[in-house]
């Protein structure tokens, strides 16, 4: 087995992501071109399509039936099979689709791709798609877990205001987080007006060029994409619907962990609650520490006292695309039973 994070593994995972991108754009021809001529596509109903022509016709039909479609792939893992000389790429995909009759579906899939060298590049030789569920249904526990699994960082927002009552809801959810001795040290500064949002935008804006430079230098596709997305967020910060500064009063009670760690344990927990509440309400959000690049100007412009800690800056709004599942290391890689 070849280690997961080799250059080839990145290339084959990029191929799978390229397929999703092509389907997002309704470019069935480009998506079909990522398969080998003799490829096999096995759909969730168990129907096998054999050959690039049959696959292209199927994907074209999918595009024709859909007025809007989004595919989000996450949790990709790649394994080299020496016996077949191919990569096995497993991932999960969420697809949101609006059909021509106005109906909407949101489905979740497991994908397994057999990827081989072909035409001086990588191509999918076999793809098996298994449906894992549709829409947001099930028990409360299942819904909570789904919200957690799909709370991805959203850095691009639709040009649409967020009602004040929804902002109040997500902030209230933040206050349900645990805190040391239930001291509840948090305060939330919500910015929605151009003047107040502009204070943060002008203070942080110069950071964008540096972020773009980091992105251009990164050799890892996901890191490069992340840096460029953050740079775009910073450049457009003045038009973000809502900015929330998560702040807190210092805790003075004695603790072996120290007062700063105690405070941040509360503020980070509150921030996570806020992100999950946003996702549950179909909003998008991202937690950042961008304020540190212009904190002095932000404090002065918004009247935040010097003794109040700013732990995070959360951008909030309606996402311009439906978030997919989070991308994380497999749980078996981080789970230790009884001892390390």
Structure overview:
The protein is of the alpha+beta class. It is built from 10 helices and 10 strands. It has helices at 7-24, 28-32, 52-65, 140-149, 164-174, 194-204, 207-217, 221-235, 259-280, 295-302; strands at 35-42, 48-50, 66-81, 86-99, 104-118, 121-134, 186-191, 242-248, 284-288, 309-317. A hairpin with a 2-residue loop joins strand 5 (104-118) and strand 6. Helix 5 crosses helix 9 (259-280) and helix 7 (207-217) runs antiparallel to helix 8 (221-235). The radius of gyration is 23 Å and the shape is elongated.
Overall body shape: elongated
Rg, nearest Å: 23 Å
| Low-pLDDT stretches | 1-5
In whole angstroms, how far apart are the ends? 24 Å
Q: What's the multimeric state?
A: single chain
What's the count of strands? 10
Order of helices and strands: HHEEHEEEEHHEHHHEHEHE
Residues in helix, %: 25-40%
Which sheet architecture does the biggest sheet show? 6 strands, mixed
Main structural class: alpha+beta
> How confident overall, as mean pLDDT?
84
Could you give the topology of this structure?
Blueprint: H1 7-24, H2 28-32, E1 35-42, E2 48-50, H3 52-65, E3 66-81, E4 86-99, E5 104-118, E6 121-134, H4 140-149, H5 164-174, E7 186-191, H6 194-204, H7 207-217, H8 221-235, E8 242-248, H9 259-280, E9 284-288, H10 295-302, E10 309-317
Parallel strand pairs: 1-6
Antiparallel strand pairs: 1-2, 3-4, 4-5, 5-6, 7-8, 8-10, 9-10
Helix pairs in contact: 5-9, 6-10, 7-8
Give a quick summary of the entry:
The chain is α+β, with helices and mostly antiparallel strands. Helix content is 37%, strand content 29%. It has 10 helices and 10 strands.
């Amino acid at each position: 087995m070849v280690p997961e994070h080799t250059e080839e593994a990145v290339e084959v995972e990029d191929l799978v992501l390229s397929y999703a991108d092509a389907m997002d754009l309704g470019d069935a021809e480009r998506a079909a071109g990522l398969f080998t001529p003799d490829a096999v596509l096995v759909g969730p109903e168990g129907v096998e399509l054999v050959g690039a022509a049959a696959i292209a016709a199927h994907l074209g039909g999918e595009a024709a039936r859909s007025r809007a479609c989004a595919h989000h792939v996450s949790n990709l893992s790649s394994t080299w099979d020496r016996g077949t000389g191919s990569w096995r790429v497993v991932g999960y995909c969420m697809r949101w689709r609006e059909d021509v009759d106005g109906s909407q579906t949101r489905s979740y899939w497991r994908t397994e791709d057999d990827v081989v060298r072909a035409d001086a590049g990588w191509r999918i030789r076999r793809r098996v798609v298994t449906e894992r569920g549709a829409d947001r249904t099930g028990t409360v526990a299942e819904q909570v877990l789904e919200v957690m699994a799909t709370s991805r960082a959203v850095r691009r927002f639709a040009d649409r205001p967020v009602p004040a009552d929804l902002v109040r809801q997500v902030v209230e959810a933040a206050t349900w987080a645990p805190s040391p001795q239930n001291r509840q040290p948090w305060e939330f500064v919500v910015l929605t007006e151009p003047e107040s949002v502009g204070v943060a935008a002008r203070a942080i804006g110069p950071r964008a060029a540096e972020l773009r430079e980091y992105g251009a230098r990164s050799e890892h596709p996901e890191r490069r994409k992340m840096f460029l997305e953050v740079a775009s967020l910073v450049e457009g910060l003045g038009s973000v619907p809502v900015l929330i500064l998560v702040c807190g009063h210092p805790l003075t009670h004695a603790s072996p962990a120290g007062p700063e760690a105690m405070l941040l344990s509360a503020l980070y927990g509150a921030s996570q609650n806020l992100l999950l509440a946003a996702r549950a309400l179909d909003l998008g959000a991202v937690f950042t520490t961008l304020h540190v690049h212009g904190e002095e100007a932000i404090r002065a412009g918004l009247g935040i006292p010097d003794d109040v800690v700013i732990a995070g800056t959360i951008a909030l709004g309606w996402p311009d695309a439906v978030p997919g599942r989070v991308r994380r290391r497999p749980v078996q890689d981080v789970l230790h039973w009884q001892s390390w």
